[in-house]
């Protein structure tokens, strides 16, 4: 029996089979969790339907996290399938493409700053708040994805680094707020992986090559490696861990 047997998990942020959320869903499914999925818009619906099929789920619901009404209706709908659930995976991030190239100030605008923070950080707290009635008191867990650019200045990451720093603080505030009702909140800081979101970052290939050459393990990580740690962090095996950022990056973050 898998270590997530009997758990119900909502996966937010699958855009393709290369998505980190796909790797997390795969590991959670393997460990016995029942899954539900959201899709951002009609363009991505087929991909998410494909994921639901692959993981034996028939719960696929729309949710653009930029829209309050869609967040509300997501949990109303989910509540008609499940009377409660245990795991919320937030694998969502976005900044306008032009902000992810050049120097930090080159393409910094109030609008780009707002969008990056809204979609990449605020959405975690918004989902956690809306999910609360269905998650409270079950010993559940919330997981999000962050990146080293939150702590260090990395080329081209720019305003997304600020948004990820906000996301990491968000994890800590949520952990304190939701801890008393038994919900844990953690993040994985993943090494670079070639996904649709990563394709928006200028010179991403160079970053990946650098990690392959210099990380202690002399390689980058896979979505399955991130998925395994995600499944662990959201399981009862990790019942003593909350408010933490766990690195799954082949050791790259320890380098000076
Ligand atoms: O190297 C990487 N790929 C890393 C990614 C390293 C470390 C962290 N991360 C983070 C990302 O910042 C993000 O938070 O992992 C998370 C997942 O990213 P991913 O798996 O790399 O990217 P992808 O497969 O593109 O999924 C992200 C998805 C979006 O995809 P697109 O490509 O369409 O932007 O986030 C979703 C969307 O499906 N998303 C939204 N979902 C709901 N509402 C929204 C939105 N407004 N915007 C983006």
Describe the protein in words:
The chain has a single domain (8-254), classed as NAD(P)-binding Rossmann-like Domain (Rossmann fold, 3-Layer(aba) Sandwich). The protein has 8 helices and 7 strands, in the order βαβαβαβαβαβαααβ. It has helices at 20-30, 42-54, 68-81, 110-135, 159-178, 196-199, 204-214, 223-233, and strands at residues 8-12, 34-39, 60-62, 87-90, 141-146, 184-190, 245-248. The chain has a 7-stranded parallel beta sheet with strand order 3-2-1-4-5-6-7, sandwiched between helices. Helix 1 (20-30) links the parallel strand 1 and strand 2. The relative contact order is 0.16. Ligand 0WD binds next to helix 1, strand 5 and helix 6. Pathway: Lipid metabolism; fatty acid biosynthesis. It catalyses: a 2,3-saturated acyl-[ACP] + NAD(+) = a (2E)-enoyl-[ACP] + NADH + H(+).
Short overview:
With 256 residues, the protein is of the alpha/beta class. The chain has helices at residues 20-30, 42-54, 68-81, 110-135, 159-178, 196-199, 204-214, 223-233; strands at 8-12, 34-39, 60-62, 87-90, 141-146, 184-190, 245-248. The protein has a 7-stranded parallel beta sheet, with helices on both faces.
């Amino acid at each position: 029996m898998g270590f997530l047997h009997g758990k119900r998990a909502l996966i937010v942020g699958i855009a393709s089979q290369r998505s980190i959320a796909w790797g997390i869903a795969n590991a959670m499914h393997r460990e016995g969790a029942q899954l539900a999925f959201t899709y951002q818009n009609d363009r991505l619906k087929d991909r998410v339907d494909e994921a639901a099929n692959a993981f034996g789920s028939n719960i696929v619901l729309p949710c653009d996290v930029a829209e309050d009404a869609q967040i509300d209706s997501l949990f109303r709908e989910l509540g008609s399938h499940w009377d409660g659930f245990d795991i919320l995976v937030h694998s969502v991030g976005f900044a306008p493409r032009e902000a992810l190239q050049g120097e930090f100030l080159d393409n910094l605008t109030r609008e780009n700053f707002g969008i990056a923070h809204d979609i990449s950080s605020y959405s975690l707290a918004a989902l956690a708040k809306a999910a609360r009635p269905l998650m409270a008191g079950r010993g559940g867990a919330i997981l999000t994805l962050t990146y080293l650019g939150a702590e260090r200045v990395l080329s081209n990451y720019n305003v997304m680094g600020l948004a990820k720093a906000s996301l990491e603080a968000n994890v800590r505030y949520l952990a304190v707020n939701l801890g008393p009702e038994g919900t844990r909140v953690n993040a994985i800081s993943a090494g670079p992986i070639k996904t649709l979101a990563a394709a928006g970052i200028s010179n991403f290939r160079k970053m990946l090559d650098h990690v392959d050459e210099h990380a202690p393990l002399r390689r980058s990580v896979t979505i399955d490696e991130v998925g395994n740690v995600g499944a662990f962090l959201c399981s009862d095996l990790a019942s003593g861990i909350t408010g933490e950022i766990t690195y799954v990056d082949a050791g790259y973050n320890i380098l000076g």
